[in-house]
Amino acid sequence: MKREDRSLRVKIYMMLGVYVLFVLLLAVRAFQHQVINREEYLKWARDQQLQPVKLVPLRGKIVDRRGNLLAVSLKAGSLFAHPAQVQNPERTAQILAQNLGLDAGQLLEKLKQPVSFVWLARQLPIDEAEKVKRLALPGIGVEREGRRYYPFRELAANVIGFAGVDSQGLEGVEIFREAVLKGKQGRLLLQQDARGRLLWQELYQDSREDSVKEVVLTLDVRIQHFAEEALRKAIEENGAVGGTVVVMDVNRGDLLALASLPTFNPNRFSTYPPELRRNRAITDAFEPGSTAKPFALAAALEEGLLNEEVRFNCERGKYFFGGHWIHDIHPYDVLTLREVIVKSSNIGTAKVAEILGSQILWKYLDAFGFGKKTGVDLPGEATGTLRHWKSWTTICLANHAFGQGFSVTALQLACAYAALANGGRLVEPHVVHEIRDEKGTVLEAWKPGPERRVISARTSERVRAVLEGVVEEGTGKRAKLAGFRVGGKTGTAQKFEPALGIYSPNKMVCSFVGIVPIDKPEIVMVVAIDEPRGRVTGGMVAAPVFQQVASKALFYRNVDANVPEPASSASVQAELFRAAPAAWDLTEPAAAAPVASQGAVRPDPSLSTLIMPELRRRTVRMALRELEGLPVEVRLEGSGVVIEQDPKPGSLLETGQLVKLTARALGPDG
Amino acid sequence: MGLGPLAVVAAGLMASCLLVIWVHVQTLHLRYEVSQAYEENRRLLERQAALEVERQTLRSPKRIAEIAERDLGMHLAEPRERSLLP
């Protein structure tokens, strides 16, 4: 038994020895693989398990000054085919057509092309593209791309520009800021199993995220909208071929709106002809016409050669100068320098130019920035033309003074008027306010350049006073704004026909350049209407556009009205109260006192008799504010907007009288 | 040393190996789940971006002005109807 035990024990030890030897061999082999040949096997594993994925470049965003999204890229998928690998082209085309709503015939045509690669559809919504990918059709693939979207469509399209299908900027800010907006091409290694399922790994981090930038523009989409709508209306009403509006901050050169019509939808830019894509405000030069006259005035005042009260013989509308006849639309006898500008006399301006001389007039036109680029951060800016004074003939002197013989862009005109308005500094117009990274950190902000002074602050003030006269009593009356003092100048310039070498008798550019408020300038606006139909002037077609846009723009910029309303409304009421009470029939029935119906200016409360203002259609708060301080007792029923009032508007109020107001909230039906 | 302790050691080793394998399998499952969660996150972010574009489109000043003026009968306040709060 002992011998058997020993034999068994020997066998067990032998087996154990074999086992240990086997384990040792495994350990050695494992050591060889895991330690000695580690790098080689790791490389093999990576090659098998890691799948390189090309990441779509994320193009930066463009937003307006209030953060409204103007351009953004979304992920999209483009469908491609390797025709040689497609097993059943007819059936493949049919399936794709059913899933994507594409034309099966066109797809089949592409699938049968004798090429190795063909795009079937570019920039499909990512959901649709991934649906196709899941079908796993032989020879069909999906490439992830970025697709540019412009949520506000036509709004500011000529400024923003557009990016092409390969996410490269092609126009406007998109191309001018390509270096900032262009996304970084990313590449990511993802671990996947034998069935192609992805496995999370710690390096699952998209490196492109840090590279996405945001370009913040100076534009305000609301002011831009007002400008485009008012311009569109003016173009339609006057049968014009196009037009432009530039709204600029006079002190900083921030472009608040830059409207060009006709325009295009950048989401479908390729369906529009190229001429609609240009930004007329910077690419189209035109003769400024009478809008150039204030520069002759500024030159004369700055040089101390004239003052506003110097009188000129305006020759009753016809004056022979430099071998040519110069005409005024309305004949005048004698006008002061101020009146020459206010009434826009060509003859008077020509005589100012005679006193200035070519060299001085050119010096100022050049200093105001004509004939050279403004340096705005947009592509395709035109310089306009301003010939050197040495090449001028005698008539050129007069022509340049009243805006012929040289051409300007609307933006140049805006900059030059901004200098007239802001105390004499030529500002740098710009459309990019700042550039931020994804987290909102400002990477680059616009900074003003060195000061470029053109005229003194005193001359600026004197020119502004004359420009206010143009709107108050001259050719720009339609630019008047309730509550604000406005200055400006109208212009009606015949277009030059290069082919014929003459000025067209019926093609004109009608313009208006306005500054508001003229006593403390905030914005300058250029309105230019191209070829309006009929015999119209800048004061007739362009000034109303200014009026519409400026009133809304000032509201949105929180600029408070600082002058009483025109005499036709509230101020008349005030005037009536200032008049001797005996001269006014206080027994007049309420209905016969229409001037009181606008009652916004409170009459002198020291008077014992007052007039009931019109409070209907006003909010309760406004109505109570209107009655505040008046010696009456107010009883209010309801809330929202006043719909009834007692006494009626225009009624005489006694001290301590009861005033009943009924209000209700206005619903969608008004 | 008898066979008993050896068997215990072998069982312990086996159990340890199984534990390691179990942990590894669990980790693998978690990695699949995290990958799916990442994928879902990516898809939702893309959806969010698309919805943001849609929201901005609806906020278009032109569209809002049309609704305000045509459907609601609103108009921009006249200067006399405005007051700036301090």
Structure description:
The complex is a heterodimer of chains A (670) and B (86). Chain A contains 21 helices and 26 strands. In chain A, helix 9 (221-238) packs antiparallel against helix 19 (543-556) and helix 11 (293-302) crosses helix 14. In chain A, strands 2, 3, 4, 5, 8, 17 and 18 form a 7-stranded mixed sheet that branches. Chain A has a 5-stranded antiparallel sheet with strand order 10-9-21-20-19, with helices on both faces. With 670 residues, chain A is an alpha+beta fold. In chain A, a hairpin with a 5-residue loop joins strand 6 and strand 7 (198-199). By secondary structure, chain B is an all-alpha fold. Helix content of chain B is 78%, strand content 0%. Chain B contains 2 helices and no strands. The longest helix of chain B is centred in the middle third of the chain and has 56 residues, at 3-58. Chain B is rod-shaped and about 105 Å long. The N and C termini of chain B lie far apart (95 Å).
Layout of helices and strands, plus pairs?
The complex is a heterodimer of chains A (670) and B (86).
Chain A: H1 2-36, H2 38-49, E1 50-55, E2 61-63, E3 69-81, H3 89-100, H4 104-111, E4 118-125, H5 126-135, E5 140-149, H6 157-160, H7 172-176, H8 178-181, E6 186-192, E7 198-199, E8 213-217, H9 221-238, E9 242-249, E10 255-261, H10 280-283, E11 285-286, H11 293-302, E12 311-313, E13 318-321, E14 324-327, E15 334-336, H12 337-342, H13 346-356, H14 358-367, H15 394-401, E16 408-409, H16 410-421, E17 432-437, E18 442-445, H17 457-473, E19 487-497, E20 502-516, E21 523-530, H18 538-541, H19 543-556, H20 570-578, E22 610-611, H21 620-627, E23 633-637, E24 641-646, E25 652-653, E26 658-664
Parallel strand pairs in A: 2-8, 23-26
Antiparallel strand pairs in A: 1-6, 2-3, 3-4, 3-5, 6-7, 8-17, 9-10, 9-21, 11-16, 12-15, 13-14, 17-18, 19-20, 20-21, 22-25, 24-26
Helix pairs in contact in A: 3-4, 9-19, 11-13, 11-14, 11-17, 13-15
Chain B: H1 3-58, H2 61-71
